[in-house]
Fold this sequence. Notes:
alpha/beta, five-stranded parallel sheet, 45% helix
Amino acid sequence: xxxxxxxxxxxxxxxxxxxxxxxxxxxxxxxxxxxxxxxxxxxxxxxxxxxxxxxxxxxxxxxxxxxxxxxxxxxxxxxxxxxxxxxxxxxxxxxxxxxxxxxxxxxxxxxxxxxxxxxxxxxxxxxxxxxxxxxx
Length: 136
């Protein structure tokens, strides 16, 4: 099986998610087909499928979960459930805080994980290096 990344995000943030997915692929060398985005037509959840079952399967089949944590993300019980599933499965988790969200806002949901801010270029570059190394 090839490397897969589950990009956990709020559907309300689709424009940000599409741009980030392009950057993620460029920085990790992964093809777009190796990154799962639930909110995109086509590569997302197939028509007629159970959304919950499909998402669960995608999380289980992924090698890492990258979470774009925005205000909409924190308001979504389903997004927080994705993080919980990744935690229970013992997966590599890479949280990215998107301003105006602060690190303090994610303390309870990240269970001690170090996060980076999307607008901190050095930290984001380090996250991409750490992600690539974790997937090697």
